[in-house]
From TrEMBL:
Classification via CDD domains: GT_2_like_f
Domain annotation MobA-like NTP transferase: ranges: 10-189
InterPro entries (UniProt xref): MobA-like_NTP_Trfase (IPR025877), Nucleotide-diphossugar_trans (IPR029044)
Molecular-function GO terms, alphabetical: nucleotidyltransferase activity
Listed name of the protein: Nucleotidyltransferase family protein
Gene source species: Cellulosimicrobium arenosum
A Pfam family assignment: NTP_transf_3
Length: 213
């Protein structure tokens, strides 16, 4: 699989075991008769991404067997080091995306089922070369979240879009489950915040299961 100049490649982080929720890998949670990972792939493709790199880890063989990932526009990467934290999955997915010749890399999480194609399209339309476009969700409280101005008024959330020149260094800087947060803080002057009207909550606990309906 290969892409051409100017293409957008998404990295879908779907390697976790879903330990806190206690229902197995989140990638296989059911949403409207389909797996959550299938839903997330469709959102990214329908939103304008040319290719989706799905990064699996926990029970990867089972996810591959039960989800519909063997289709055009999808590449599966298995991160054997997934238990070390999200950072290793981000690096594995970003390496694959850049290897496909991506001009920009969209980073998304499988456990945000409230994301819709319009959100992805809005991010891609807002992204500018040599910059980063991040999401801010109207239905996710920002209180207590420190933004680039040192206050709780700005929330940097996923999905986000990085220029290819920034994606590699961002992924390389990631540690544990913190992702590229420190890289973003150090390059706050390159960040554009894109507002989304929907529900960008992560599906982490039983109280979030309404996101699957």
């Amino acid at each position: 699989m290969s892409t051409g100049p100017g293409t957008s490649v998404a990295v879908l982080l779907a390697a976790g075991a879903g330990t806190r929720l206690g229902r197995g890998p989140k990638a296989l949670l059911p949403r409207r008769g389909r797996s959550l990972v299938d839903h997330a792939v469709d959102v990214l493709l329908d939103g304008g991404c040319d290719t989706v790199v799905v990064v699996l880890g926990a029970e990867a063989a089972r996810v591959v067997a039960e989800a519909a990932l063997d289709r055009p526009g999808v590449q599966v990467v298995v991160n054997d080091d997934w238990a070390s934290g999200m950072a290793s999955s981000l690096r594995a997915g970003t390496d694959a995306a850049l290897g496909l010749g991506a001009a920009r890399v969209v980073v998304s999480h499988v456990d945000q089922p409230g994301t819709v194609p319009d959100d992805v399209a809005r991010l891609l339309a807002a992204h500018r070369p040599e910059r980063v476009a991040v999401s801010r969700w109207s239905d996710v409280p920002s209180a207590g979240t420190t933004g680039p101005d040192g206050t709780g008024t700005t929330r940097w959330a996923h999905p986000l879009v990085l220029d290819a020149a920034l994606a590699g260094p961002a992924a390389a800087s990631a540690r544990g489950d913190r992702g590229a947060r420190e890289f973003l803080r150090e390059h706050a002057d390159l960040i554009d915040v894109v507002e989304h009207p929907g529900d960008g909550r992560d599906l982490d606990t039983e109280s979030d299961l309404d996101l699957l309906s």
